[in-house]
Each structure stands twice: as structure tokens, then as C-alpha cells.
Amino acid sequence: MCGIIGAVADSAINPVLEGLGKLEYRGYDSSGISILSNDEIQTIKAEGKLNNLKKRLSMVPLEGDCCIGHTRWATHGRANVTNAHPHQCGQVSVVHNGIIENYLQLKQQLIQWGHHFHSSTDSEVVPHLINHYLSHEMTQEEAIYKTILQLKGSYALGILINGSSNNLYAIKQGSPLVISEGNDGAYIASDAMALGSDSSKIYYPKDNELIKLNTAEVKLCSGSLNKKIHYINNNQCEKVISKENYSTFMEKEIFEQVDLLKALSVKNDISEYAAINFSKLNKITIIACGTSYYAASVAKHWFEKYANIIVEIDIASEYRYRSPIIIDNELVIFVSQSGETADTLAALRYAKSKKSQTLALVNVANSTIAREANYTFEIYAGAEIGVASTKAFTCQLAIFYKMAIEAAKQRSFINDTELKQLTHNFVQLPYIMEKVLQRCTELQKMAEKLSTYSNVIFLGRGALTAIAQEGALKLKEVSYIHAEAYAAGELKHGPIALLDEHMPVLVIAPKNDLTDKLVSNIQEVQARNAPLFIIGDSSIKQQINLQEDEFFELPEIPESILPIISVIPMQLLALYTAQLLGKNVDQPRNLAKSVTVE
Ligand code: AGP
Fold first, then answer.
1. Residues whose CB falls within 8 Å of the CB of residue 51, separated by 6 or more in sequence, listed in order
2. Ligand 1 centre and the CA of 593: distance in Å?
3. Mapping DSSP to helix (H, G, I), strand (E, B) and coil, where does residue 166 land?
4. How much is the mean pLDDT over the chain?
5. What stretch of H or E contains 173?
């Protein structure tokens, strides 16, 4: 979603531009900055990539010690310069992440007061309201408070006001915001990763705490009181993340999975998860969005099969709107790579309001979801830069797998030999994964054929239905090929009507109890002349006539770890197909890395 950065420092534009560069990976469509320069606010904006903004800035060199910047992910109004942030009204300039739900009402009121609007955004009402109250003899703080009292929705705001002193304000409700203070200046950002080396101490403001930053000090304003800020260490400070020798971050992150899983299996200690009393649980509910939801879907199979726990899964954006029944001794798990997804956060707050025990599974340790849940487990995937999630997915699965083993142990549902086998499989996992990755060129060939189609149907069975869904999501996210996934048995209940020579079907068909059933499904596909692609066991190849570039053989894989291995060919296929079609795989169109609006 939108990225925010602000600095009060000498040549404040430098850390702001640097920060905007670090926010690029989140996905955006335009950018802009406002700087207090020679006692006036100057705003420069550009459509498209940050380079366009930098080109414009090179023509108007700006100096000043108070600056805000923004990368926009359009919600209200097209992606163009007018709608790009910052939005300015008089002596007030504002950058916003979130959604002002009642902006139309506020805009009407402001128009009646004589204000003129330029953009179609919801955000523009904010500088107008602040400016309005400033012109009615209010102090800067009073004008901001009066404004936010009228805002409905979510926001993180960076506000620059040109007055007797140069001040930068920051305030949030529901959206992420971080403040930092270093030797060279003070900063605000929507993501700790955007902060520079001068930001080893950070503070996460609470909702509606107003922070005032100027060259003299950083204050937490609360009425007439100015409270001290208690900073914590910034563990994301200045980690330089490069693509190394890979063509894209997505490729690097796919190949990194072997080492990450080796590290997780060496750290093969499940005692961390013993903090949860699984034997007392009556039910687990797992809530997430997108890829994280598919991880939840696989986890459901593991918890049910190995620990005999009832597991319900739900999409975060639906959970709190469907009157979920929360029972005694229920654990509600929230899965989120970023830890900032607005829907997941809202669902977590809902579950907490119902007094549920909550657990967060996140990749970003200081994220809002991590801070608000009762328990937090990290997935240790390292920063994921590619917008399409890959390594975070397999690390989420790995942690769920370990939790399921701990749950199985506590509930004594499976015997010691079976428990040992599950642990042994986990240790084998990265080595089997490595073998699959070594054969990536075979998937490049398959991608050449797949990239000639406009639609693809993915099929799987059991826990691998979620992997088929994840494969379809990956393909559509990065290649823009339309892809849908089904449990293979569902094909004949409707989607089969779509099959003809233009509708390829990709089946995940490893060797397991369901292989024979899958072969029947595959034959139904062949009978309709639909092109077939199979990621599966060698026995399938003997039964179904396929060309080299239509079949990828899965090695023998223990059933329990099949989902974690079989997603690898899906990720590679999506990557190669998108690259063949010339797409920007790290920053696909319209997508944001961290979805901080509902
Ligand atoms: C994955 O490739 C997606 N970009 C998206 O579905 C993502 O998984 C979803 O938005 C949830 O994000 P989170 O894990 O950060 O909460």
C-alpha cells in the first residue's frame, strides 16, 4: 500500500528519497515529496516509478530541513500526478496511507466553506481541514486534533506545517507508522525497513498519539503535556538487501528456501511451541489472506491428521463479518508475512474483543499483528522483497509443521515411531527441495509452453488443493495469465464445461493414497482435448501420454512434507512464465506487498 517517509534533518530530502527507494518493493503507482524550503512548502510529484520523481527533482534542486515523501497505491482516483501525494492546502501538506471513509461528506462541507479540490482522492480533505482550523485561530496541534476527530476510517499521516517554526507531525489510526530519532535527525515512516542507518531507535505510536518533530526535539503531544518517548531497538535497521546474482528478488527468494529450511530444521526444537497448551484446546481457528491463507489451509490438514484437533480456517476479510462462533479453549491463529495486513489485523482485534486466545505467525517481529497478539511466533524467512510471496509461504508451512508435531506430542494422538518419522521427514525436506530446484531448467521448458495460453486450471487433492490454489495465485500475480484452482474431484461438478484445446489443466499428482483417483480425473481432462501439464509421480507418465515439456517428475517425497516440496515447481513455473512474457515479477501491476487498507 502507500508508503510514507518524513525527515527533520539537514538536507532532509536525502533521507526521504533514500527511504522512498526502500519502499519501492511494496508496489506503487506514483510518488511525491513536500519540503519546507525558504519558508514555503514546495511539492513535486510524478506518475510511475521513483526515477520519474528524481528526474523532476534534478531540475528543481530543493534544500530544507523538513520533508515528507510518499509512494501511492491508488485507492480513490486514477494513478496520475494530480492524485499523487503529498496533498497541499495553504501552509499544510499531507501524506496519507489508509482510507478516509467519510471523505465525501467532509469534502461537501469544505466546498461549502469555499475550498477548492484538485484530486479525486479521499486524502485531500485532510490538509484542507487542518488549514481551515488554522485559519480559525487554532494552534497547529489543535487543528490536527480537531481534524482527526472528524475522520472515519484508517490513516497514518505525515503532516508538514509552515509556521513560526518548521514542524513535521505524525499521527495514525489503524495504519502502520514508526518514529525514529538518531544523531543526524528525526524520522517517520510507514515501515521500519525504510529508515536509514541513523535510526537504531524506534517508537511505534499508539492510535491517535500525536508526534511533533522539529530540529530541536521530538515530542509526544498529549493535550498540554509533552510526554517522553520510550524507544526500542530497530532490528530492521540498514540491512542491505541485494538480488545477489539472481535476475529478480523473486528468483533469489525461491532459491533461498533450501537454506532457510535447513536453518529451521537444524533449529529443530519444538519447545518454543510448547508455550501453547494444545492438549487443552477444543478448536483452532486460523485466519489469513492470500498466500498466508493457503498456508493455513495446509496447516488444517496437519493439525487434524496428526493431532486430532478441530481446525476451522477463514479469510480475514470475511471472519469478523460472519458472526463466528468462538468456543471455550479455542486458539485463534493469525498468519501474516508482513504482520500489517489490515483485514487480518481487524480480525485479530475482533477475536481479542471476544476474549479469544490469539497467536500471530509473522515474518516481521515488530509488526502491529505481532505486537497485538497474545503469543507471537516468527517464521524466520528474512525480509521478503518480491511482492509475490514465496519463501514466506514455505517458512509459514515449516512453522505450522513444527507446531503440529508439538500438538501431536501433547495430545498423544500418534505414537512415538510416527512422531519420529514426522521429525525425520522435516530434516530431509531441504535436501529433497534442493534436488527439485536443481532441475529448474525442466520447468523453464514447461513455462515456454504454458506462456502461450491465456487461461490455466490447476488441480490438486487433499492438502495439495491448497498448493494448486497457491500455484494459480502465483501464476496470475506475476504473469497476468488467468488461473483458477480446484480440488480435482470438483472438476466434473462445473469447471469441466470450460475444457477444450485452449484451456490447459495443470495437475499436482504425487505418489500417495489419492494417485489413482487423480489418474481418473486426468483422464477426464484428456478426453476433452484439454492440454495437460503434470507435476507428479513417474507412474503417471507411464499411464498418460505426455511430452517432455508437459511433465515434471516429483521425486519420492514423504506424504507429510509433500505440500512444502510441491509448491516449488509452482513458484518456478510462475516466475519463468512471467519472465518469458516480459513482466516485472518483483513489482507486479496493481499489487502491494503489505495490504494496509481493508
Ligand atoms: C502473495 O503472493 C500475495 N502478494 C498476497 O496474497 C499476500 O499473501 C496477502 O496479501 C497476505 O499478506 P500477509 O501475509 O502479509 O498478511
1. none
2. 7
3. strand
4. 92
5. strand 166-173
Q: Look at residue 238 and tell me whether its pLDDT is greater than 60.
A: no
| CB-CB contact of 344 with 316 (8 Å) | yes
| Atom number of ligand 1 nearest to Cα 592 | 4
CB 334 within 8 A of CB 368: no
Note the pTM of the prediction, 2 decimals.
0.88
What is the model's pLDDT at position 362?
A: 96
Cα(350)–Cα(318) distance, rounded to whole angstroms?
Answer: 12
Give the β-pairing of 375-378 and 357-362: parallel
What residues are in contact with ligand 1 under a 6 Å CB criterion? Answer: 289-292, 336-338, 341, 344, 387-389, 477, 591, 594-595
Whether 515 has a pLDDT exceeding 90, the answer reads no
Mutational test site, ligand 1, from 338, 369, 396, 470, max ligand atoms within 8 Å of CB: 338
Q: Which three cell numbers stand for residue 40?
A: 514555503
Which residues belong to the active site? 2, 593
| Structure confidence by residue, pLDDT tens digits, 358-387 | 999 999 988 899 999 999 999 999 999 999
Q: How many Å lie between the centroid of ligand 1 and the Cα of residue 290? A: 5
CA 256, CA 99: separation in Å to the nearest integer?
36
Integer angstrom CA distances of residue 489 from 256, 309, 329, 447: 34, 25, 34, 26
Q: What pLDDT, on the 0 to 100 scale, is given for residue 267?
A: 67
Write the CB contacts of 14 (distance below 8 Å, at least 6 apart in sequence): none
- Shortest-distance atom of ligand 1 to CA 392: 14
The strands making up 185-189's β-sheet, listed across from edge to edge, are: 40-47, 30-37, 66-72, 3-9, 185-189, 178-181, 201-203, 232-233
Ligand 1 site-directed mutation target among 26, 341, 363, 376, most atoms within 8 Å of CB:
341
pLDDT value of residue 403: 95
User: Which residue from 26, 249, 291 has its CB within 8 A of the most atoms of ligand 1, so it is best to mutate?
Assistant: 291
What pLDDT score was predicted for residue 244? 86
Give the integer Cα–Cα distance in Å for 54 and 39: 23
The contacts of residue 431 (CB under 8 Å, 6+ apart) are none
Q: 560 C-alpha to center of ligand 1: Å?
A: 24
Cell digits of residue 394: 514455505
Q: DSSP state, 525?
A: H
Is beta strand 178-181 parallel, antiparallel or unpaired with respect to 201-203? antiparallel
More confident residue, 181 or 456: 456
Q: How far does residue 282's CA lie from ligand 1's centre (Å)?
A: 28
| CA 69 – CA 164 distance, rounded (Å) | 22
Give nearest CA residue, ligand 1 atom 7: 290
SS3 label, residue 201: strand
